[in-house]
Amino acid sequence: MLRVLALILILTGVPLQTAAAPPDVDVELMLAVDISGSMDMIEARVQRSGYVEALRHPDFVNAVEGGQHGRIAIGYFEWAGLVNEASVVGWHVIENASDADAFAAKIEARPLGTRRATSISNAIIFGSRLIETNDFSGARRILDISGDGPNNTGPPVLPARAEALARGIIINGLAILIRPSASMSPLDQYFADCVIGGPGSFVIPVHEPEDFAIAIRQKLILEVSGLPARLPIQPAATSTDCFMGEKLRPGFLDRVYPELDR
To answer: How many CB atoms lie within 10 A of CB 1?
Structure first.
């Protein structure tokens, strides 16, 4: 009967509904790493080594192996005002320590440098596209963004975030507060209110260079394991201005977004 019904539907032009593919990895995880010019080479180097060390750490490997499928899909790219497409380390499947080491080695081998401006929105758009177009079916899909400043160029961050969340992509953050600016709201609060989103999303602040490796390892383990993050950000006394980065560039908002109500 099912075959007859399918044939009738085909002949009458009624589209068949295809069931979603079951997950083949526990998580699709894309790492989007800030290399904007506000980070000096020492910070950029510490950040890079933090990712490499975290990916090779036994606790990360144990989290991967302890998942329902025991495998994840992971990728990496660097961004500033624009995404450095040459920095993309494409999707890799990690199932064991050897896989994790091979992926870390590709990141470690990349040339290290910084670029101008900070566009979290471009990072979200680019990372979401990489997640949407891969060949995996993950139980969860996560875009993990590090950053040491608010969005100050490119599209507004809120619509970029909303589009990613509408596609079922979770956004987590690593807020780099090594050199916080007194003229702006705390960056971890900005990330919480303007950048991250989705079920179980979280932001981890980094206050000292020596905290990088531990913070990165912590967030990777949380993302891979799916465990809830117990990292509450206290509610701000006033609402966070999600245009605070753009407002540091006189006339930028009026030139680029004249239609926006700010």
So the answer is: 5
Mean pLDDT within 86-99: 97
Spatial separation of the C-alpha atoms in residues 146 and 38, rounded to whole Å: 13
Around Cβ 77, how many Cβ atoms within 10 Å? Answer: 21
The CA-atom distances, in angstroms, between 81 and each of 118, 149, 174, 227 are 4, 11, 18, 32
Number of folded domains that form the chain: 1
- Taking only the tens place, the pLDDT of each residue in 137-180 is 999 999 999 999 999 999 999 999 999 999 999 999 999 988 76
**At residue 20, what are phi and psi to the nearest 5 degrees?**
-65, 140
Cα–Cα distance between 69 and 72 in angstroms, integer? 8
Output the domain CATH number for residue 156.
3.40.50.410
**What residue numbers bound the domain in which 182 lies?**
22-228
Starting from the edge strand earliest in sequence, which strands make up the sheet with 170-176, in order? 83-94, 72-79, 25-34, 138-147, 170-176, 203-206
CA-wise closest residue to 152 among 181, 112, 127, 109: 181
Q: Does residue 256 fall inside a structural domain?
A: no
- In this structure, how many other beta carbons lie within 10 angstroms of the beta carbon of residue 4? 8
**Strand extents, DSSP E, the chain:** 25-34, 72-79, 83-94, 138-147, 170-176, 203-206
Express each pLDDT in 207-224 by its tens digit. 998 899 999 999 999 999
Residue 188 lies in a domain: yes
Q: Domain for residue 28, yes or no?
A: yes
